[in-house]
Design goal:
The chain has seven helices and nine strands; from the N terminus they run ααββαββββααβαββα. The chain is of the alpha+beta class. Strands 1, 2, 3, 4, 5 and 6 form a six-stranded antiparallel β-sheet that branches. A three-stranded antiparallel β-sheet has the order 7-8-9, with no helix packed on it. α5 runs parallel beside α6, α5 runs antiparallel to α7 and α6 packs antiparallel against α7. The longest helix is centred in the last third of the chain and has 29 residues. It is globular and about 50 Å long.
Length: about 270
């Protein structure tokens, strides 16, 4: 997903993800399925000063599902267009019209220096699900209010991560633990490749920078390794699956949370 620094218009959204504009569900959906128009929700979210900056839709194997597939939109608040920081909290909308994904809203973080789009774990901000059953009245406003309240807590969490120094052994443990999130056991990669910074700004040893460096390598690919089953070399590709991207991001965030807690305990013991 490419993230824009300007709000996307409906015309741009339709070019990037036509499924946002479906006006009915996939024909095999249950009679009990309550259709929620994604573009209607996007327009409603705009009324709360959150504007779409990125969108992605899943590839489909069944051509009949084209236009109804899973999709994902990132929103940024007007405040962050006017006064952007190094990191901004974003609202993430997930939906589909083929029953593959229920309507939900999560929180994310965008880091400008590397254009990384992170997804906050459910332990920090629990995804707010809106079922395709019944009335959706006020559901969107509730989710938006939850993110507005959590915004500064999430930014404080980032500040905390940024202040936690990691030793080389700490970074190695983090990278090794992250490998199974992307690579199956027979796909052998060197954990050190996940720690190579892409830019000068990432040549730091704090938890947040290390987290972002590992995330960027896992999501964007270009990591080489050996397939132990075939003894052939491979190079990972960029992750395009919405579910896989979200899952890796949330689990990485949880790992960072665990490291932060361990480091906090260590500091208390030393003190």
């Amino acid at each position: 997903m490419t993230i824009s620094n300007e709000p996307l218009t409906n015309e741009q959204l339709e070019q990037l993800a036509p499924s946002l504009f479906a006006d009915e569900p996939y024909f095999e959906a249950s009679d009990k399925y309550h259709f929620i128009s994604t573009i209607d929700v996007i327009n409603e979210i705009r009324d709360y000063a959150w504007y779409p900056v990125g969108v992605s839709e899943a590839n489909v194997r069944d051509e009949k599902k084209e236009g109804f597939q899973k999709h994902y939109v990132r929103f940024r608040h007007l405040d962050d267009f006017l006064n952007p920081g190094e990191n901004v909290v974003e609202l993430l909308l997930f939906n589909s019209h083929d029953r593959s994904k229920c309507f939900s809203i999560s929180a994310g973080v965008f880091r400008f220096v590397c254009a990384n789009g992170l997804v906050v774990s459910d332990e920090v901000f629990e995804s707010y699900q809106i079922k395709h059953l019944g009335d959706k009245e006020n559901d969107v406003s509730i989710a938006i209010n939850k993110i507005a309240k959590a915004k500064y807590d999430i930014l404080d969490k980032i500040k905390l991560f940024s202040k936690i120094p990691l030793t080389q052994d700490d970074k190695a443990s983090f990278a090794k633990a992250a490998i199974p999130l992307r690579f199956e056991k027979h796909l052998e990669v060197d954990y050190r490749d996940l720690l190579v910074p892409h830019r000068i700004e990432d040549e730091r040893d704090d938890l947040y920078t290390t987290f972002n460096t590992i995330q960027e390598h896992l999501i964007r690919g270009n990591i080489s390794g050996i397939n132990a089953e075939t003894n052939r070399r491979f190079t990972s590709k960029i992750i395009k699956s919405i579910s896989t991207d979200t899952d890796i991001n949330k689990k990485l965030w949880n790992m960072a949370e665990s490291i932060a807690k361990i480091k906090a305990t260590q500091s208390k013991l030393i003190a």
